[in-house]
Amino acid sequence: MTMPEVKEEKREITFRVYRFNPQIDASPFYDEYPITVEKGITVLRALNYIKEHIEPRLSFRSFCQAGICGSCAMRINSVSKLACTTQVWDELAFADRENVILVEPIANLPVIRDLVVDMDSVVGKIEKYFGWVESKMPENQMGKKEFNIAEAEFKLYDAATDCILCASCISECTMTKANKEYITPAVLLKSYRMEADSRDAVHDKRLGVLVSDNGVWDCTHCYRCMEHCVKHIPIMEAIHHIREDAVQKRGLSDTPGAKHAAAFVKDIEKKGRLVESLLPIRTNGLSWTVKNMLPMAFKMTKKGKTPPPPFMVKAVPGIENLRSMLKELKSRGNSNHHK
Ligand code: SF4
Ligand code: SF4
Ligand code: FES
Hints:
This protein is α+β, with helices and mostly antiparallel strands. The chain has helices at residues 43-53, 88-91, 120-128, 151-157, 168-172, 174-178, 185-195, 203-210, 224-228, 235-250, 256-271, 279-284, 286-302, 319-337; strands at 10-19, 29-38, 73-76, 79-82, 100-104, 111-113, 116-117. It has 3 domains: 10-113, Ubiquitin-like (UB roll), CATH 3.10.20.30; 119-249, Orthogonal Bundle (Fumarate Reductase Iron-sulfur Protein, Chain B, domain 2), CATH 1.10.1060.10; 267-337, no CATH class. Helix 7 runs antiparallel to helix 8 (203-210) and helix 7 (185-195) packs across helix 10 (235-250). FE2/S2 (inorganic) cluster (FES) is lined by residues 62-65, 67-72, 82, 84.
């Protein structure tokens, strides 16, 4: 006789939680809380239990408990997620230590206390990049009639409106990690949503800031934001749309970012690969390159890592095929823009 399979429904699990109170702690540390957890419990419920029964000072944010408000984002086993929609038992598969779940604040934002981060810089960036619609409707008509848009237009930014500003994408963004002034993926997404709205009156102003330093051209296309968006929003599509819009409306010589993209395409067209030694000059000009790149160039020469001079960069085999593919892509792009 075979015994019926007994499914484990409870387990002792340790939550290793980041702790830091900048007012009294010299540096962050980790506390471990072993608790018995039933299957079906979320990380947020486990944290609530710890706060109620073990450590009342443990600080974290939560509100809706349903993946709607975005306040409970944190890094669970080193990945940014919403604690209220993350099942403890699912996380056991990703734990570095058996039955130990690591809980930390989201990255790239200053910690106020424990798992609570300061969102002020995000709010500041939403302000800087006009993250709202400034209505074209004359003031005397406001409140008297609706200002509708076509369904087809709404579809353009429908997905972007799902953003709950949880900052998980900001936490995972490689560019934000390197440069805290960077616009961030969440703010790019918000700007796109407003930029695509035909009722908005400040497109040009917004686009002007978006293409400036720390803006849309600084994104490195690592796709991490999109991979980790808790609402599965295609953030990269928004970033591409802003760039296309910038190139169409402001031309390719407008900013270093646009010039960089243009130089990139030209190299691929000509040789099928990049002429790296000339990219900084074509992007930022000779004087900027001499001033900013010379020290690095010396270091690279010392280590034997300088890119080959332009005359040594030969065209890749099959360059003719590549050129005709690019030509085809360009003509498709042009006909799409004229639709
Ligand atoms: S694709 Fe751009 S915005 Fe997204 S994570 Fe990478 S650098 Fe950040
Ligand atoms: S884009 Fe996604 S991950 Fe980023 S803030 Fe919005 S919902 Fe959160
Ligand atoms: S508590 Fe609102 S999203 Fe988690």
